Amino acid sequence: MKRRDVVSGAGVSVLGLATLGTATNVVAQTSSDVSITFDDQATDGTRLTVAEVRTDVEAQFRILDSESTTLAGPISLDAGTATEEYEVDLQPPLTETETVTANLYNSDGQGIAREAARITVSGEPNLAPGIEPTLVEPDPDAGFNYPYFLYAPARRENEQQASILVQPNNSGQTTDDFDVQQRSARHRIEVGTSRTIADRLSVPLLIPVFPRPESEPVDWRHYVHALDRQTMQISDGPLERVDRQLLRMADDARQRLSDQSYPVDDQLMLNGFSAAGNFVDRFTVLHPERVRSVTAGGLNGTAILPLEEADDRTLDFHIGIADVEALTGESVDLDALSETNQLLYMGEDDGNDTIPYDDAWSDEMREIALDVYGEAMVADRFPTCQRAYEQAGADAQFKVYEGAGHSPRVALEDIVEFHQRSLDGEDVSEFGQQLGLRPAFEYTPDQPTVGNETTFDASSTAPGVGAILAYTWELTDDETAAGETITHQFTEPGEYAVTLRAIDDKGRVETTTTTVRVGETETERSQESNNTSTDDQEPNNTSSDGQESSNASTDAGESSEESTAGTTPGFGIGVAVTSIVGAAYARTRMNGDDQ
């Protein structure tokens, strides 16, 4: 959507809604400044104009056809937006005259404004012809031993150059019948989620048709559709280096598109879920220089870690990157990886865990994975992945969708918006969340003294996904407390290691420790200064000694923060559940995971 005339403070923010319903039943508005002006008009079907959109609350804007199919948007609007002459590009284009609606939704997904207009389609749209779903046969001479499907939506001839969207096939079946894989790929390119994404973005779509064999040409332990370690170890035959075969497919598709005056660049946008999510996640780490953006979901909480070791464990592919150079001949380019836009996501209630299965994990890798990632997919493993990226200095956006299971549907709007922003060169950092329970606290005054109250406040603790149930404090060897905010009086000067323990409803228990230096009271300092002056006084040196004593007292009252925050099991320092409350919550969570 392009704005020709911005009247006041229009802005764009990240789409925060998982789904948006139609605005047929518009909720009552207390605001007097939420409105749409949308007039009947004639168009070639590729673009229309909305006369005015105004909103004094944060809102999402969409154009829907008569069957509630999205033709444009959603686009996020800041509170205070007032724009005239919205020019809206339609994808897919309208092919016949019909009534469409312009809609505004609030942050809860409720319709707050709706206006209908009769759109008359006339004349021939100025469109570059697309490509209907087409099977491209294998071409070993071009570097790929298996076929792929290619689709390209019609687009305006003057539209900016785009990137190819790649969706790996994931049939969910281990079989030597290759027709099963081909039918699955054809279904995806005709009516699958990736087809919707390609249409919404107006970009070509490529789906490779790789086998997931039972016995030929390799056995079932090679999870080709997930690009696992066993697959990457294939050194000859038709399945050797399927990651490179995919690159050659993309190069072939780019040439075919160019021959039809449909230019695309050499960057790829990747989308995948479940095994296909693992495929695109791992592929991105291997070839970050070729990936513009990637959206990978349903990852079992086991995104590949951009580290060579953790917890004294060597992290080989596909857990980490220790042996990538030995496997591929090239080391991982962490700088290029950090430049690649990555959205890695899970559903909060996703229970589809591949770790117990031998086709996804060998016994040795399973042991390392559980040790490094942890047990629970969302509560333990996914926050571990985020911390590993932070440790490696590689940027990525991690997100958990509340109330969602093993399905990409809840993330569809974010996926479209994420790739669109990547195409436009816009920032994507607001898509991510801070995962994991990360306790933190502040204390006042910053120079505590004996006998005076010191307030400890844990409200800055990041709960991640979930809710904090309890805070406990260890203030000295024999003094404890509970609560988000507490007060305490220290009875002796010195250094105290104050530990905060946070417990959440996911069964996680994390700690952080800060050294607090407690000084003497003003009275004690004054008495000590006087005693020192009397005992050690020399002629004409009283003032100098008194100043020195005062500085020493001030130094004793300074604080030193040395955070030793605990982490989830399997990465860094594991935190023991030492309290009865914490142990009870952990048992409850484990029982829930087993059901």
UniProtKB/TrEMBL annotation:
<feature type="compositionally biased region" description="Polar residues">
    <location>
        <begin position="528"/>
        <end position="567"/>
    </location>
</feature>
<dbReference type="InterPro" id="IPR013783">
    <property type="entry name" value="Ig-like_fold"/>
</dbReference>
<feature type="region of interest" description="Disordered">
    <location>
        <begin position="510"/>
        <end position="573"/>
    </location>
</feature>
<dbReference type="InterPro" id="IPR035986">
    <property type="entry name" value="PKD_dom_sf"/>
</dbReference>
<dbReference type="InterPro" id="IPR000601">
    <property type="entry name" value="PKD_dom"/>
</dbReference>
<protein>
    <submittedName>
        <fullName>PKD domain-containing protein</fullName>
    </submittedName>
</protein>
<dbReference type="Pfam" id="PF18911">
    <property type="entry name" value="PKD_4"/>
</dbReference>
<dbReference type="InterPro" id="IPR022409">
    <property type="entry name" value="PKD/Chitinase_dom"/>
</dbReference>
<dbReference type="InterPro" id="IPR029058">
    <property type="entry name" value="AB_hydrolase_fold"/>
</dbReference>
<feature type="domain" description="PKD">
    <location>
        <begin position="437"/>
        <end position="518"/>
    </location>
</feature>
